[in-house]
Amino acid sequence: MISRLRLSPEAIGVGMTGQRVRDRLIERLREQGVENERVLTAIRTLPRHMFVDEAFAGRAYEDTALPIGHGQTISQPWVVAKMSEAVLACAPKKVLEIGTGSGYQASVLAALGMQVFTVERIGDLLRTARKRFRQLGIEVRSRHDDGRAGWPEYAPFDAIVVTAGAAALEPALLEQLAPGGILVAPVNGQLLRLAQDPEGRWLQQNLAPVSFVPLLAGVME
Ligand code: SAH
Questions:
Q1: Is 107 designated active site?
Q2: What's the pTM value of the predicted model, to 2 decimals?
């Protein structure tokens, strides 16, 4: 999948967006416990600087969340890596993301070979994300909607990644997870991983404390 990316000179980057700076980010992610080589390769290859406003391009390979407008942020690379690693454990083919935002996390999942469905409630962010997908040759299905209801038409999903924080898990999302699937979501400031055992019981694991923008109701232009 990575080999199919359209890597223009802009996407390959130079200086503050170039390979050396990206390699430093990868080293940092390793130090912070990211082990999956496919995830690290996807993060090194994808031009994160093209998912933020130009004013922030020079900071795109710092391990930090950055503003993307409308009070929203592109997630910190470490969080993107942890969420991607967590779902890879079930070798998912089809994944649902809630909260497209910049489109970066969706692109990482697509670069890992998954068929990605993503839902965003802010139309303006979604339009910009779609432009980036086209520009980079990334295939992602996206929808402008309140993602708390999931995307029932395409359910079940092998994995679900929620990239906005809530006080509780959305039951509709759990219902759209395929047997053996994994859901990762920030709930009450903790990154949770949920999976069902063969008897249908939910197993919950706390991956890390995290801070996320809130999961909100309704849609906006
Ligand atoms: N995955 C994104 C992170 C964006 S921040 C990235 O890689 O850039 C979280 C996003 O979730 C924001 O864009 C916000 O608008 C969106 N969001 C919040 N509540 C939502 C909801 N109910 N449905 C869909 N998207 C939602």
A1: no
A2: 0.97
